[in-house]
Automatic annotation (TrEMBL):
The gene is frr. One of its GO terms (cellular component) is cytosol. It comes from Comamonas flocculans. Its main location: cytoplasm. It is found in: Cytoplasm. This is Ribosome-recycling factor. Gene3D superfamilies: 3.30.1360.40, Ribosome-recycling factor.
Amino acid sequence: MTIAEIQTNAKTRMEHSVEAFRHNLTKIRTGRASPALLDTIHVEYYGSMVPLSQVANVSLIDARTISVQPWEKNMAAKVEKAIRESDLGLNPAAMGDLIRVPMPPMSEERRKEMTKIVRAEGESAKVVVRNLRRDANDAVKKLVKDKEASEDEQKRSEAEIQKLTDRHIAEIDTLVAAKEQDIMAV
């Protein structure tokens, strides 16, 4: 493996970790409703547990209400039960074969708790990026030790990997700040 390959690999893996963090942020509740909030819910469907999105259409009615439209009428009760029993604290209401999921307003205390969760998630995403930096630098040091690269190339590579790391950590910080602002907006 060459230094360029190591850097490319590190960059790709850092981008994947930031993307995974971005995806995790969609699951954290804000004051507004979001269909992504129900992505973690699984429903029993003919003996197996499947994601809610595979048995129903999930969409927004307005800023505070999610609608869930099961594709089969007999699934409505199971879908409603799964949403109610999830750890999201939601209380769905069935209206015929349509299930309305109103988002209760969050208290100031709950908003602060959610921002702490977002910061903790952001910190763990930064740790992943830093670990990827360490792994890349270790791989470059191994090349130098095996006499496949010079020490000058090692210094340049470490500087480049550090720039990559700084850029991805700044992106994580931006995502955290945006999500905190979203949560604290009433």
